[in-house]
Amino acid sequence: AKDEDSIEEALEVYSVEFLSIACNGSELRAEWPTLRSWSQFSDFVDDRMCRQLLNIAHCVRRGLQAPRESLESVDWVIHLDHDELFLPPPGGLQAHFKHLDDSGCRLFLYQNFEAVPEEHTLLPFLDVTLFKVPQGRVPRTPMGASGVEFWASR
User: Fold this and answer.
1) How far out from the chain centre does Cα 119 lie?
2) pLDDT score of 120
3) Which of 14, 15, 34, 153 has an alpha carbon within 20 to 30 A of 7's alpha carbon?
4) Element spanning 114, H or E
5) What CA–CA distance (Å, rounded) separates 55 from 89?
6) Burial level of 66, CB count in 10 A (0-12/13-18/19+)?
7) What is the side-by-side strand order in the sheet with 84-85?
8) Single pTM value for the model
């Protein structure tokens, strides 16, 4: 019921021109074997990260195969978990994506700040004050290495 409530709320807030929803269920899972990455992940669909990667591949294919005039047609896809924060570049996303396109870039990886809830929450950016620092920003010191080891062992 929580998923349905969240979907209903999202559809009330965002126009269908900006939001497409593919619910996790038998219909979506039936599409996974048609993805190019299926052979890499088919043995691991019980793993949340593998399912997420299959869902990302599905989303990318769906957006790139949509007719150009379709609302689902995309040039770029940003993938964020519900507990990850993304701050667009100061010039805005359109200018940023234009720069990437003009530079011939087809994939761009961003550093993100992931919320670490200390208690269960559906509103991580209201309830959480602890965030993981992107690994590339961790100081290369003994204390930094200790922190990375701690997160890797969780």
Assistant:
1) 22
2) 78
3) 34
4) strand 113-115
5) 26
6) middle
7) 84-85, 113-115, 131-132
8) 0.66
Q: How far is CA 100 from CA 64, 111, 115, in A?
A: 17, 16, 28
pLDDT tens for residues 16-47? Answer: 777 778 888 888 899 999 999 999 999 999 99
In this predicted structure, which of 63-67, 89-93, 111-115 has the lowest mean pLDDT? 111-115
Distance CA(45)–CA(55), nearest Å, equals 11
Q: Which of 73, 83, 74, 88 shows the shortest CA–CA distance to 52? A: 83
Contact status, residue 54 vs residue 36, Cβ threshold 8 Å: no
**What is the pLDDT at residue 1?**
58
CA distance 101 to 105: 6
Chain mean position to CA 80? 3
